[in-house]
Amino acid sequence: MDEEVSGKEERRNEVREVVGVFNDLASLQSAIDDLLTDGFDRSEISLLAEDKDVREKAGAKRAVELEDDSRTPRLHYIEAESLALGKVSLVAGLFYIGAFMGAGALTAGSGIFASPLVAGAATGGLAGLAGLVLAQFIGRRQTNWARAQLERGGLLLWARTWTEEREREAVAIMQRNGGHDVHVHTATV
After folding, report:
1. CA 65 from centre of chain
2. Which of 56, 79, 99, 158 lies at 20 to 30 Å from 71 by C-alpha?
């Protein structure tokens, strides 16, 4: 009986996925867009984690060696629009905080109205500039992520599937968008 329960638990921890390797970001993004348009949820789509994390957990393996390994570290997919909105929010938020703090500090110290406006603009500008630097850092990190993956042999994309029909759809979408070594496999979660 214990073996029977253990077998059921193992099956519950297994999921079916379609995995493919892409040679460029445009093809990868096109496949992701088509998966989302076809009804796949963002939570069902994942990508290979940053190179540092992959090297720590899996070593310097090639993409085709990582695609079926359940221990391969992954990232959840985040739309480009959400990343852009996050960058804009970071810059604007830091500008606002800097402007508010600068104007407030000067007003509390001197009580003159014109100077707080200048102080707010100056400190807001400096804080906004810091936000721009952070946004550029994020952009460079994304570029480095893609470059490291391409050096491994391609950009990996996984799509979790719940039915055989969804498996066929995901395979077709990935192949149509330039994915190679596209196949279905079982992963342990």
Report:
1. 21
2. 79
**E strand map for 28-173:** 45-48, 74-76, 155-161
Provide CB contacts within 8 A for 26, sequence distance 6+. none
* Cα 13 → chain centroid: 24
User: Which stretch, 72-86, 141-155, 158-172, has highest mean pLDDT?
Assistant: 158-172
Domain locations in the chain as residue ranges: 15-188
Give yes or no for residue 113 having a pLDDT over 50.
no
Residue among 116, 64, 126 nearest 94 (CA): 126
Q: Token pair for residue 40?
A: 């796949």
Overall pTM surpassing 0.70 (yes/no) = no
Give the E-state strand segments of 23-175 in sequence order.
45-48, 74-76, 155-161
Name the token pair of 166: 């969804």
CA distance 156 to 21: 5
Distance CA 54, CA 152 (A): 11
In three-state secondary structure terms, 157 is: strand
How confident is the model at residue 97, as a pLDDT?
54
